[in-house]
Each structure stands twice: as C-alpha cells, then as structure tokens.
Amino acid sequence: MKRILITGATSGMGLSATELFLEKGWKVLMTARNHQTGVGILQDLKEKGFEHVFFFASDVSKQQDVKALHDYAMKVMNGVDSIINNAGVWTGGMLHETDEDDWDRLFSVDVKSIFLTSKYFVSYMIENGGGTIVNTASVSGLHGDYNMAAYNAAKGAVVNLVKAMALDYGKYNIRVNNVCPSACATPMFLANPKEVIEMFNQANPLKRICTPEEVAKAMYFLASDESGSCNGINLEISGGLNVHTGQPVQ
Fold it and tell me: Name one Pfam family in it (predicted).
C-alpha cells in the first residue's frame, strides 16, 4: 500500500485529493493548520469506511512543525512514497499596494512550505529507492495577471523550483512535477460574488472554471506510476485558458 502526505488537505483541492487517493487504496496522512477541522474531517472519512487515513495539525511554513510532521509520518506510516505540496494562500494587489507582511506570508506558505516539506522527506525517498512529489503551482506562475504581483512571483518560483528539483532528484528515481490550475471551484473561490465567478467562467474556453476533483485527478496521475516518464513538468489544468494569442475574433 503506497503512502502519501497531503498538505492543505482539509479543503478544496487538497480534500479532493485526500478522498481520491483513499479511493485508490493509498494510505493518506493529511495535514493542515486547524486541528479541530482536521479531526472532524478525519472522523467523517473513517465513518465512510476509510481506515488508512491520519491527520496531523501543522503549519508547513514553520520548520519545527514540519519536523514534527516528519516524525509523526515515520511513526504511523513508516515513511512516505509521495507528497502533495498543496498548502497555499492568495493575496491580490499591485506591487506598490502590497504590504511586506502579506508578501512574506505568501512566500512562506506558497514557496517555503514546499522547500521545508520536501527537505524533510526527500532523504527517506532516496534511501527507499524513489518517490514522487507534486506541488500545486498555478497558471499565474506561468503568466502574469493584473493586480496579483505577489502571487505571480510566488507561483513563478514554484514553477521554476520544480525544474531544479527534477534535475537534482531524478537520478534517485524521485519525480517532481507541478499541477498548474487556473481559478478553481474551491469553497474559497466560490465565496466570491456571483458576477466575479461568472466573469471567470466566461473568460475560459470551456465557459467554466476547473473543479477540485479535476485537479485531484491530475495530482493522482503525477503521483502515481501512470506518469512514469513525467518529471519537471508544469501541467496546466485551465480548460485552455492560456492558448489564446490575445488577438480579437475575426
């Protein structure tokens, strides 16, 4: 039975991934910051009949929390075969409008957490003969957006980090890839006004935004043996949002 750690696992894409990997027969360790929420979801999953699921509360942007998470994973699962680095936050605004605290928080959660989680678990993967790491990047790391300077910068870091990690760890049979969703129908995004949601729907060639379940399927593909030769890729899940040249309809 393969073992996976999923960060940001209690909502949106992370929760969908948790459910999918459990359905596929994997052993899953969920982590997120809110202990009460995590324990409640854990109980719900166990009531659905999933036995091989665990939860550990941690802030994966903090080294001491990731070390404790590592120790817990070794205790309850005796290691991990795969990591989904899904923890993330968002902030908007032009560069000169962005507070330093918001900038630092965004980079801590969206970038530093990937560094820390990978750092603490990759040694086990090397010793164990391989593994997979899947990070949640974004189409906003591949291209620019209006009023999203900090987010573009952070996700751009993740987009390039995956290439360096793929080069360094491929020789150890560790594949590292990113999923790059566009706006996704997570509870956080669906809290926007209806007109905002519809604006994003209409901007998409499919006339709808992607779903957490669709992103989870891409995560599973990249984490599993089904993507055996995929390494260092940024897999867009955007409905074709980025294929347009920008020229008007003729």
Answer: adh_short_C2
Among residues 51, 47, 48, 55, which one has the least CA distance to residue 14?
A: 55
- Tens-of-pLDDT digits for all 250 residues of the chain? 999 999 999 999 999 999 999 999 999 999 999 999 999 999 999 999 999 999 999 999 999 999 999 999 999 999 999 999 999 999 999 999 999 999 999 999 999 999 999 999 999 999 999 999 999 999 999 999 999 999 999 999 999 999 999 999 999 999 999 999 999 999 989 999 999 999 999 999 999 999 999 999 999 999 999 999 999 999 999 999 989 888 988 8
Catalytic residue ranges: 151
Domain ranges of the chain: 3-183+212-235
Rounded to an integer, what distance in angstroms lies between the CA atom of residue 212 and that of residue 20?
Answer: 11
d(CA 173, CA 171): 5
d(CA 111, CA 60): 10
In angstroms, rounded to a whole number, what is the distance separating the alpha carbons of residues 203 and 176?
30
Let me know the angle formed at the C-alpha of 6 by 5 and 7, rounded to the nearest 5 degrees.
120
Residue 217 tokens read as 């399927």
The token pair at 221 is 């593909």
**CATH code of the region 3-183+212-235:** 3.40.50.720
SS3 28: strand
3-state class (DSSP) for residue 71: helix
